[in-house]
């Protein structure tokens, strides 16, 4: 039987991976075709890294599960807010949810 790596170093690396994946999910543009699916896949990936074979962090695992509970493919803002507050510990108000920053280029590649 294979056992998870219980070393503190391995768990710390896995938790760092979860944080990086969560940050990527928050930055994911869910307003484009397939964007919501990518967001969900990133959260599921983070969930796997937070579990017993990774960070083994029950609180983090529950928070990521909550992200998927509030996730709606047509409105990811509330799920992103749960990621910000419960996973990343950021108490700042949302940056507009799914809206790209005002200085971002148009999503279709057209010139402003």
Give a short overview.
The chain is an all-alpha fold and 112 residues long. The protein is built from 4 helices and no strands.
Describe the structure.
The chain is an all-alpha fold and 112 residues long. Helix content is 54%, strand content 0%. The radius of gyration is 15 Å and the shape is elongated. The N and C termini lie far apart (58 Å). The relative contact order is 0.15. Mean pLDDT is 79; it is low at 95-112.
List SSEs in N-to-C order.
HHHH
How far apart are the termini? 58 Å
Structural class: mainly alpha
- Which percent bin holds the helix content? 40-55%
The counted number of beta strands is 0
How much β-strand is present in the residues?
under 5%
Task: Note poorly predicted spans.
Answer: 95-112
Query: What overall form do the CA principal axes indicate?
Result: elongated
Mean pLDDT: 79
The rounded Rg comes to: 15 Å
Largest sheet: none
| Number of continuous helical runs | 4
Spell out the key features of this protein.
mainly alpha, disordered C terminus
Please outline the helices and strands.
Elements: H1 8-27, H2 35-50, H3 58-70, H4 77-87
Helix pairs in contact: 1-2, 1-4, 2-3, 3-4
């Amino acid at each position: 039987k294979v056992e998870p790596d219980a070393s503190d170093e391995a768990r710390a690396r896995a938790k760092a991976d979860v944080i990086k994946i969560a940050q990527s999910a928050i930055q994911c543009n869910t307003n484009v075709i397939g964007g919501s699916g990518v967001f969900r896949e990133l959260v599921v990936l983070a969930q796997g890294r937070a579990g017993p074979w990774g960070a083994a962090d029950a609180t983090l695992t529950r928070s990521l599960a909550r992200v998927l509970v509030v996730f709606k493919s047509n409105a990811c803002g509330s799920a992103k807010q749960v990621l910000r507050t419960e996973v990343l510990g950021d108490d700042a108000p949302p940056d507009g949810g799914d809206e790209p920053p005002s200085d971002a280029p148009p999503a279709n590649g057209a010139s402003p």
